[in-house]
What we know:
Oligomer: heterodimer
Distance between the termini of chain A: 33 Å
Number of strands of chain A: 2
Order of helices and strands of chain B: EHEHEE
Strand order of the largest sheet of chain A: 1-2
Shape of chain A: globular
Largest interface: A-B, 25 and 17 residues
Largest sheet of chain B: 4 strands, mixed
Helix content of chain B: 25-40%
Strand content of chain B: 25-35%
Helix content of chain A: 55-70%
Structural class of chain B: alpha+beta
Radius of gyration of chain A: 19 Å
Mean pLDDT of chain A: 97
Number of strands of chain B: 4
Mean pLDDT of chain B: 94
Structural class of chain A: mainly alpha
Largest sheet of chain A: 2 strands, antiparallel
Low-confidence stretches of chain B: none
Strand order of the largest sheet of chain B: 1-2-4-3
Number of helices of chain A: 14
Distance between the termini of chain B: 13 Å
Amino acid sequence: MSITKEKKVLAVTxxxxxxxxxxxxxxxxPQNMGFxxxxxxxxxxxxxxxxxxxxxxxxxxxxxxxxxxxxxxSMARGEFQPRGGSSPxxxxxxxxxxxxxxxxxxxxxxxxxxxxxxxxxNALVGLxxxxxxxxxxxxxxxRGFSLGRSQNLGRLEGTSFSxxxxxxxxxxxxxxxxxxxxxxGAGPGAMHAPIIASLLIGLVVGAFAQRSRLCMAGGxxxxxxxxxxxxxxxxxxxxxxxxxxxLATGTFHLSFAGQPVAHTSSLWNFLGMTVVGLSAVLxxxxxxxxxxxxxxxxxxxxxxxxxxxxGAAIAHGFSLASSGKGPTTxxxxxxxxxxxxxxxxxxxxxxxxxxxx
Amino acid sequence: xxxxxxxxxxCPQPVVMTKKxxxxxxxxxxxxxxxxxxxxxxxxxxxxxxxxxAVDGWTLKLTK
Lengths: 357, 64
């Protein structure tokens, strides 16, 4: 295993993500939730009146900040590239399934690594499910799965998603009364770091993620497809840093039961993350990577994020999301529906990919 | 000279296509890319399987 420059950049990114997450928890974010792309988008959806779950409503500045960090750095490095048109509707729906799976597990792949680093063994089950989903995705990729080519688009189109993030931040800072916020003690939505800390750490992490192309799904995927261990460097360093951080700060607890914002139903932790892993591989990136690509001008990824937002609203409106008590019946049914949907789409788009090759 | 066009495709498809094209061990292959991520990923893969990579704009020239 050679140490390339790319791996060094990914390792440094992993450390910064772990450090940023640790600091955000120290300053007020929920336990093991310094970052969680799925949870934060869910909180934003609640804050925008898109669902009525009182425990999870807050305009998390980390999300807009990460998009803008990627937007600014990609502009500076000449990598900003407005593009889109590669099966936008399917991407929206895969964003939806990715969110449903994450909310059944209670976390995106990034939070899974943060949970694992703090000793939450349910996250280990989630990781196995995630790897299984990624593996199924590579079967499709190896057989020619494709969502089709994207086209170059205009600058306004490519910039509009980042512009929308500025609107969200303006709403939070200047017009907070328009938004909904979880009441103190109501749940994770009420726990958050100061806005300025979330904003600055989000910007830095977004920029690092843009530079390094950090992707939680890409690491396992490339290992399976090409035997390439480059991308997996970052998740490993996020885990290692979080392990050291939680041991040093006394927040490390090795157990299944009693973990913060987590449940112990192994089957659904596994299957929830299988849905996330398969969605992420078919989409070409995990939830975090979709945010970064959207910042770089990729409107397919922007639509994926909107699909995730829609998924979050539906997940809470229809009781699909798990809670600390465990998964719901609706959530279990929907997890299976999502899996079936993804496999069917995978088969159809693999055949189509072959015909167009 | 064989050439594959991966423009507009999202990761990891450019690398999967390169892998397939290199499976029958051609002496040379041109790969068209249109973004930095694909350029770096295809280069990394080609080097790992023993090809020399020359970058000419958005065309990667792989040779044994």
